[in-house]
């Protein structure tokens, strides 16, 4: 469900922050502490500098950027909640950097930090929800550290006083260097938190897609444009706002499409997205005279988890299963949740041997998977092993259409279940049969 109302206060002791692994908790609190220190120093510097206090023109620029940031967030709130939930174990990117970097060119660091606070405070109230306040605080802290680092680059390049918009080759070089610094610092801090919070997450998954990071780069570039216009032609900024809002949809369209086809409990593709992706991939394979592998897997004793620990614990275990499956597939493979506890993996261009190899990696990982869950009695329990049965099929070896391919994989899956579960069965044109091996061909 997309949160569009006002968030209610949740006491800090109830934040999910405290359930993080110890290294991740220390890392997050450490970044937050450094951001608070930078904030205090920035405020002190503004109050005691050569030109103590904030100039009226800077207050005006701050007001414009704050209002623009809020309007931007409000216009996009309908998709931002779903996009973040789909981000799972990879960086969640947005265009807040646009207004923050514009502020870096126009405002003292203390007001830039105030702008970050306004942006993330409004996001918490109107967009993201009350249970992830610690994540918004950490994200705001990464923005503060990235902004402080970029501000240091601007000053090192000789751009001491605001506005610091590029007016020549050297100033442009300095601003670009500040942009790169801002991106690198923010990105590195977020990746560190992801890897420490989810030790099972792969480095590839934590880095996310290149297209996601291009969104951030685009936001920083637009920030330079907004800063230059605000410094020279402030009355043009409202017109540029219309352009920014229009670009927001186009820049985030790939992410929006992924979010719209993402299961909110697992971060995997939805059945509807899956149903549209399979025939498209089969058509592509036909034109290229290639193959498409399909894995259907069903968790063997998932009902026992729900009955023993409660449905929230079952959801947590299901999400951990989804993360494990995605960690073992190849780049470009599609993992979907097609039923309550049934997943499917589409492997373009895979041979039968490659499909079975992927299935065995997933089977072994799920057999040893350890998940910490909160039970219905507010206790913490550890689930060890979430085994699954697998059915494999390859186009065009055993099927010529989507329905035939899915049916072949489903039949192989049922055979694996009947053979004792936690097994992998590969479909053949004839009805499958099972041997004693964990990987069998039929």
Write a structural description.
The chain is of the alpha/beta class. It has two domains: 249 residues, no CATH class; 171 residues, Reverse transcriptase/Diguanylate cyclase domain (Alpha-Beta Plaits, 2-Layer Sandwich). It is built from 15 helices and eight strands. A six-stranded mixed beta sheet has the order 2-3-1-6-7-8, with helices on both faces. α15 links the parallel β6 and β7. α5 runs antiparallel to α6 and α8 runs antiparallel to α9. Pfam families: GGDEF.
Draw up the topology in text.
Blueprint: H1 22-48, H2 56-87, H3 96-106, H4 109-128, H5 133-156, H6 169-197, H7 203-207, H8 210-232, H9 237-251, H10 253-260, H11 271-288, E1 292-299, H12 302-309, H13 311-328, E2 334-337, E3 342-348, H14 352-367, E4 370-374, E5 380-384, E6 388-395, H15 402-418, E7 424-426, E8 439-441
Parallel strand pairs: 6-7, 7-8
Antiparallel strand pairs: 1-3, 1-6, 2-3, 4-5
Order of helices and strands: HHHHHHHHHHHEHHEEHEEEHEE
Number of helices: 15
How many individual β-strands? 8
Rg, Cα atoms, Å: 25 Å
Q: What percent of residues are in strands?
A: 5-15%
Low-pLDDT windows of residues: 1-8, 85-90, 431-442
Main structural class:
alpha/beta
Q: Specify the helix fraction band.
A: 55-70%
Gross morphology is: elongated
Tally of distinct domains: 2
Report, as a whole number of angstroms, the end-to-end distance: 43 Å
Please tell me the overall pLDDT. 78
Mind describing the biggest β-sheet? 6 strands, mixed
- Which sequence of strands runs across the widest sheet? 2-3-1-6-7-8
Transmembrane segments: 24-47, 99-125, 137-157, 169-198, 210-229
Pfam families: GGDEF (PF00990)
Protein name: Diguanylate cyclase (GGDEF)-like protein
GO molecular function, one term: diguanylate cyclase activity
């Amino acid at each position: 469900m997309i949160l569009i109302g006002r968030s209610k206060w949740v006491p800090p002791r109830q934040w999910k922050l405290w359930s993080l692994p110890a290294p991740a908790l220390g890392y997050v609190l450490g970044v937050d502490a450094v951001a608070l220190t930078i904030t205090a120093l920035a405020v002190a510097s503004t109050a005691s500098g050569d030109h103590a206090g904030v100039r009226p023109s800077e207050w005006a620029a701050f007001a414009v950027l704050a209002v623009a940031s809020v309007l931007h967030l409000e216009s996009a709130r309908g998709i931002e909640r779903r996009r973040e939930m789909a981000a799972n174990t990879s960086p969640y990117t947005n265009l807040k950097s646009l207004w923050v970097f514009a502020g870096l060119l126009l405002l003292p660091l203390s007001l830039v930090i105030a702008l970050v606070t306004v942006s993330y405070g409004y996001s918490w109230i109107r967009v993201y929800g009350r249970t992830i306040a610690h994540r918004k605080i950490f994200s705001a802290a990464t923005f503060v550290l990235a902004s402080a680092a970029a501000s240091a680059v601007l000053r090192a390049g000789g751009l001491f006083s605001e506005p610091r918009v590029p007016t020549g080759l050297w100033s442009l070089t300095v601003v670009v260097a500040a942009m790169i610094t801002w991106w690198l610092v923010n990105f590195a801090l977020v990746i560190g938190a992801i890897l420490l919070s989810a030790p099972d997450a792969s480095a590839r998954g934590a880095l996310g897609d290149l297209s996601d990071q291009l969104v951030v780069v685009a936001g920083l570039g637009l920030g330079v444009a907004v800063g230059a216009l605000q410094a020279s032609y402030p009355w043009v900024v409202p017109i540029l706002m219309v352009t920014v809002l229009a670009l927001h949809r186009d820049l985030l369209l790939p992410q929006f499409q992924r979010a719209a086809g993402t299961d909110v409990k697992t971060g995997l593709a939805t059945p509807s997205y899956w149903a549209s992706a399979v025939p498209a991939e089969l058509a592509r394979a036909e034109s290229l005279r290639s193959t498409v592998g399909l894995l259907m897997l069903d968790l063997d004793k998932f009902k026992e988890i729900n009955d023993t620990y409660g449905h929230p614990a079952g959801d947590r275990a299901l999400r951990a299963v989804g993360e494990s499956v995605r960690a073992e597939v190849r780049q470009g493979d599609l993992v979907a949740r097609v039923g309550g506890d049934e997943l499917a993996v589409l492997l373009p261009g895979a041979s039968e041997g490659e499909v079975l190899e992927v299935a065995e990696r997933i089977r072994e990982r799920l057999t040893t998977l350890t998940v910490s869950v909160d039970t219905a009695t507010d206790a913490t329990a550890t689930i060890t092993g979430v085994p699954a049965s697998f059915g494999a099929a390859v186009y065009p070896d055993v099927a010529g259409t989507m329905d035939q391919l899915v049916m072949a994989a489903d039949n192989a899956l049922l055979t694996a279940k009947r053979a004792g579960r936690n097994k992998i069965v590969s479909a053949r044109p004839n009805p499958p049969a099972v041997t004693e091996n964990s990987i069998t061909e039929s």
